Amino acid sequence: MTTLVLDNGAYTAKIGYSHEKVSVIPNCQFRSKTLRLKTFTANQLDEIKDPSGLFYILPFQKGYLVNWDVQRKVWDHLFGKEMFKVDFADTSIVITEPYFNFTSIQESMNEILFEEYQFQAALRINGGSLSAHRYFQENNSELCCIVVDSGFSFTHIVPYCRGRKMKDGICRINVGGKLLTNHLKEIISYRQLHVMDETYVINQVKEDVCYVSQDFYKDMGIAQLKGEENLVMRDYVLPDFSAIKKGFCKPREEMNFTGKYKTGEQILRLTNERFAVPEMLFHPADIGIQEMGLPEAIVNSINKMPEEMQPHFFKNIILTGGNTLFPGFRDRVYKDVRALAPTEFQVSVLQPQNPICYAWEGGKLLAENPDFEEMVVTREDYEENGHIICEEKFDV
Amino acid sequence: MPHFGSAWLQCLVRSHDPNQRRVLDSATRQRRLTRQLEALEKDNFQDDPHASLPQLVKRLPQFDENNESGKRRKKTRGDHFKQRFRKNFQALLEEEDLSVSEGPNYLTACAEPSKLPQRHFCAVCGFPSHYTCVSCGARYCCVRCLGTHHETRCLKWTV
Predict the structure, then answer these.
(1) What pLDDT score does B55 carry?
(2) Is B23 on the interface with A (CB under 8 A)?
(3) Using CA atoms, how far apart are residues A185 and B45, in angstroms rounded to an integer?
(4) In this structure, what are the phi and psi dihedrals at residue B47, rounded to the nearest 5 degrees?
(5) Which residues from B are below 8 Å from A284, CB to CB?
(6) What is the DSSP-derived secondary structure letter of residue A349?
(7) pLDDT reported for residue B12
(8) Predicted confidence (pLDDT) at residue A263 exceeds the cutoff of 70
(9) According to the model, what pLDDT value does residue A99 have?
(10) Yes or no, beta carbons of B71 and A88 under 8 Å apart
(11) Which residue of A lies nearest to B108 if distances are taken between CA atoms?
(12) CA-CA distance, A349 to A316, in Å (whole number)?
């Protein structure tokens, strides 16, 4: 009996058998204005030669799975003969869902997994629980940890104690990668070039060029300087999909600080946008979202926990999710949390090698755990008892 | 009469005298802000490329596909299935009826407002700003940015 581990995210799905490696695949469908009549699913994105003006169809809305039509098409593709060739009668599935998932969505997922796809057994679990499981496996002596999952739709901060999540401490900040990309699109469209339709390209710009500043006002000062003294400024060459396939950041030696470039490339000149965009994770109020930022929310969450556990939480802060890949993220979180935490507590912030796949790797370890058989709900259980058994067994 | 003509033309141009410029009240400003934030949640800003295409002929169900494999998928229940599985986020949230439930839930998990003072940035260039537009409440950092703001976004797209 094989186990398939699927970290079903709003932007990418991390999927793989527990005895094989993980694949990171977009969890949506695409339509292109140039290649009409065809809808591309998931990794068929690689077949599109010209991703300009790419139209996204996402099954998730605000982080919750609402559009089952699209999700089933993506899953059909992933489970089918082109990808993982799943033999449903002989496979268990470990699938992630967001915190406080709605009952109707949970029930729909049960139906689709057991009645439509007919998996032999299934386990529905939060992504953060898999990350916590992985962390506790590597650090046997620790009892408590706090998982920060900063993804596409939002950021969750969840304390875990002895493998169970502490529901009172769960905190959600409604800032995620999608918001950062959309904000970057808006400011570039206002200041330089109309790019509101170019989600794919600007997402690439965000990943290549943005970083988290360690001293916000100092960087703001440097960004206002002119010419060569402005160490923050970078020029980004936009792709035109004929000569330049992929956008890239011009190295400083080639930058032209006075006057225009001679070649016909389209250039974006980015100064404060580089660090002001990721700053939204730390200060959502900058843009008008009245919520606390990441370090404040971490400390707030820990303070809701019983006093004797608090020092243990501060010592075990784990950063997961795609947004943590910004350069300087981990150091900034450490600096801000250290400033807000009581001096006698030790603060330690860990960023794993691969924050995107960390939860998937936790799922892989869980599938190999001897207790795994008791945690899943088999298809026979479901057919006899219905949704009740899933509600009781899964702690979502 | 040429002198009278030019003065008359001047009145047609929107006056920059603060006494005569329209000022938005705080409810309108809040509505504008909410609309801007909602726009940031959108997946796409362009239209679906398939929307304008003529309706494609529906593919006929291919019965031979279903008969060859040994195990058959349970047939989905047609319209009922589609109706249930296509609700949008707001409808699902209301279905949950969280106001009557106890304990932590989706709504209580939302982060509280920050205790730190709010920072303001110029709406035009993004650098820290100290001044506010009288009419619409947008922030600006210098007179040049104020000029750009008046020409482009001030009082445009107001509800």
Answers:
(1) 57
(2) no
(3) 10
(4) -85, 160
(5) 114
(6) E
(7) 45
(8) yes
(9) 92
(10) yes
(11) A171
(12) 6
3-state SS assignment for residue A234: strand
Residue position matching structure tokens 């960023």: A351
**B44:A291 CB<8 A:** no
- Please list every residue in chain B whose beta carbon sits closer than 8 Å to the beta carbon of residue A276: 121, 126
Through-space distance between the first and last CA atoms of chain B, rounded to whole angstroms: 41
The 10 Å Cβ neighbour count of residue A28 is 24
Residue in chain B nearest A286 by alpha carbon: B119
pLDDT of res. A256: 75
In whole angstroms, what is the distance from residue A371 CA to residue A389 CA?
Answer: 18
Q: Name the residue in chain B with its Cα closest to that of A291.
A: B113
Q: Distance between CA atoms of A393 and A347, rounded to whole angstroms?
A: 34
Nearest-neighbour CA in chain B from A297: distance (Å): 7
Nearest Cα of chain B lies from the Cα of A124 at a distance, in angstroms, of 18
Residues, chain B, total? 159
**Res A255: pLDDT:** 75
Inspect the interface and report whether the beta carbons of A103 and B71 lie closer than 8 Å.
no
B42 with A273: Cβ contact below 8 A: no
Percent of chain B past pLDDT 90, that is, above it, reads 14
Conformation bin of residue A100: beta by default, left when phi > 0, alpha when psi is -120 to 50: left
Task: Look at residue A278 and tell me whether its pLDDT is greater than 90.
Answer: yes
Determine the Cα angle at A200 with ends A96 and B53, to 5°.
95
Residue of A26, A7, A123, A35 lying closest to A73 (CA atoms):
A26
- Cα nearest neighbour of A273 on chain B: B126
The pLDDT tens digits for A349-367 are 999 999 999 999 999 999 9
Q: Residue A215's CB: how many other CB atoms inside 10 A?
A: 12
Could you tell me where the DSSP H helices lie in chain A? 68-79, 103-111, 127-138, 177-191, 199-209, 216-223, 273-276, 279-282, 294-303, 310-315, 329-340, 358-367, 372-375, 379-385, 387-393
Min CA distance, A68 vs chain B (Å)? 6
pLDDT at res. B84: 59
Q: Do the Cβ atoms of A283 and B119 come within 8 Å?
A: yes
Mean pLDDT of the region A297-302? 93
- How is residue A353 written in tokens? 């090698």
Q: Which of A117, A170, A199 sits opposite B104 (nearest CB)?
A: A170
CA distance B137 to chain A (A): 13
Q: Which residues of B fall within a CB distance of 8 Å from A156? A: 109
What is the spatial distance between Cα A269 and Cα A192, in angstroms, rounded to a whole number? Answer: 8
What's the mean pLDDT when you consider all of chain B? 73
Residue-level pLDDT at A41 = 87
For B41, the closest chain A residue by CA position comes to A179
Size of interface A-B (CB pairs under 8 A): 159
Read off the pLDDT of each residue in A56-61 and give the average, rounded to a whole number: 90
Strand partners, B140: B131
Q: Is a pLDDT exceeding 60 seen at residue B75?
A: no
